[in-house]
Every structure is written in structure tokens, then in C-alpha cells.
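Lab notebook, bench 4. We co-purified these components, and the gel suggests they stay together. Before we commit to crystallization screens, I want a quick structural picture of the whole thing.
Request: model the full complex, all chains together.
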Amino acid sequence: MPTVKRDTYTPDSLLSVAVRVFNERGYDGTSMEHLSQAAGISKSSIYHHVRGKEELLRRGISRALGGLFGILEEPRAVEGRAVEQLEHVTRRTVEVLMTELPYVTLLLRVRGNTDTEVWAMDRRREFDQRVAELVKRAAAEGDLRSDVDARLATRLLFGMINSIAEWYRPDRAGSNGAPNDTSAEVAEAVVRTAFSGLRTH
Amino acid sequence: MPTVKRDTYTPDSLLSVAVRVFNERGYDGTSMEHLSQAAGISKSSIYHHVRGKEELLRRGISRALGGLFGILEEPRAVEGRAVEQLEHVTRRTVEVLMTELPYVTLLLRVRGNTDTEVWAMDRRREFDQRVAELVKRAAAEGDLRSDVDARLATRLLFGMINSIAEWYRPDRAGSNGAPNDTSAEVAEAVVRTAFSGLRTH
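Here is the predicted assembly.
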């Protein structure tokens, strides 16, 4: 049993520990006991900060959603041609995923039946839907190829973006010993690949 | 408790049931009891076909790997320019993923410590590595853009392809009531998106 340390947690630092444990064990597989052990403070100390693990899930998911929906309010996401807005949203979604990796990972993995999980899945679907509308508008403006269905294009775009959460580890150098790519570099590579394609023209 | 039915399974039909249960419950979370219930035959009947659940895992994974590595032997995967080979392998990987969905899903989800799981992850890495070499050759031949790193390009390509397993359900019509896209249509959309990009030129 780990030594119980004095509770010096802030709401944010406790959240960070909880989200790491949720991602490692799965939300369903995480008990207050697991959180207490990971944080090194008693369960009653955790209850001093939050009502329970579902509140920690809600806060973690909220942080991811705040980052993602915030993108849609940025000037470059609402001005100009739809295809430019779409490229901006793609680039920024990659950046938010990489800088807020544990929180977005939590959002991407949520499957479940609690109110918070249902709400998280609804909000995630809403974000996807907003991007899907941008894809449709860009297609209607003649800026996207017409031989790839808009719904499928949206899915492939999110497939590429979300898969980054499977391999990107901010604390780990690349396998060649070089530092990890920065989020801006990966974001640019995603935009180039998805919109202009890997082939030289 | 379900009625125990007469064992009319063939090795293939028993495998199909087992792979479905592995994908639903996770391999670790599946016991011989679960398999017995899902198949509706006794555990001893299952042991008549296989030595245990790890043999079923190995057979399921082998079927996925057979499909995937088979692609690399096809004439269009070994002849002509590397970029053409790469496009062929991309197209066919999507098709194999969609037609052998449960088996490839099993392969994609494997994480674990049994010999079979370690072997599966090694073989999957080997397939990814073979595709990564094609990407590098196509870049060296000047057919891929030089401003997206070959390793990252490979990851984004597999991100797009593998994400199809998250949403494609062969038995379900599209949400608009239309039939699902065929594997050839989705494969073509992936090749167009990844190699030529979504934007009109």
C-alpha cells in the first residue's frame, strides 16, 4: 500500500491523475480505490474535491470538448471559403488532439451507459456533424472532388486524425532517436495528405 | 442456460463464433464458458475441435494475416513503379479489411502477453513495415511529395484504412437507408483521398 501523502491536489492536478488512470484501465474498470492509490491520497480526500468518479469523467471530457468546440469559433473556421475553414478545422483538431492528448483520448474511447458517457458521445457526434457540414459546403462550392462521397470523406478525415492518439506519445522521442514531431508539423502533414494527397502532381 | 445443441460445427464455423465473442468481450475477457454458451455446445465439444481459446485466437489471426500478406504477393503489388504498387496494396488492404472484418478487427485489437498475441503483434508490425518500405521507395522514385515524412505518411495511411473497422458494419444499411458502400467503392475513395487529396485541382 502506497504511503498516503498530504493532499496538495488542485482540481486540475487531481483531474490529470484521474484521466491517466481512466485511459489505462478504462472508465468502467476504474474504482475510487484505484484513483486513491494513483493519487496517493485517501478516498475521503478525493471526495473533498469531487462527488465521485463520474464528475472526474465529466470534467475530463469537458476539457476535450472545450478545446474542440473552441476551434469552431476561431475566425479562420468561420470566414472565407468552406474548404479553407475545413482545412483550418482539420489542422487545429490535430493540434488540440496532440496538446490535450489524455483528455481527447478519453473522449474518443468513451462507450457506455451513464448519463455522462451518453452526453459525451452525443457531443462528440455533434462535433463530427459540424465538420461533416463543412465538408458538404466545400463540396457544394466545388472545392472538393465529387467522386468521394461527403459522408465517407468526413469519416476518412476523422479516421486519419483520431488515429494519431494511437501512436503519439509526447514524452517519447521518435524510434530513430529524433525528437517527436511537433503538433504543428503533424497537423500540416495531415492537411497536405488529406487535401492535396501524397502523390506529386 | 441455453439449450445445448448437437455439435454440428466445422472448424470454420466454430472459429467464426469465437472471433465474434473475442471482438465483443475482448480476448482476455472471454472464457471457454463464454464460447460454449455462444456456440450452444458443451466445452468438451469445443475441446474436440481445438486445444483451447488460444488456438482459436491463433486461427482467427492467421486468417486475417493470410489475407493481408497475400496482397503483397499479387502481381500488381510487385510490378511497376512503387507508387502504383502502394496504391494497389492500399486498395486491397481496405477490401480485405471489409470482407474479412471480424478477423482483421481481432488482429487490430490484439494487445497482450500470450505467445500468440506477441506473435500477432510482430506479424502486424511486419506488414506495416513492408508497406512503409513501399512508401519509402515511392518517395525515392519521386512519386510522393517530399514535404510529408515517409514514416508519418505510412501512419496516416494506416490510420485512415484501419479506422474503417470502427464504423463499417456489413449487415447494416447506411443511416440514409441506402445500402452500405461496397468494399471496392470505399477502397477507391481511400486511394483517391490519400494519394490525390480531397481538393479539386
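Chain A has two domains: 11-50, 62-196. Worth comparing against the SEC data before the next meeting. The domain at 11-50 of chain A is CATH 1.10.10.60 (Arc Repressor Mutant, subunit A).
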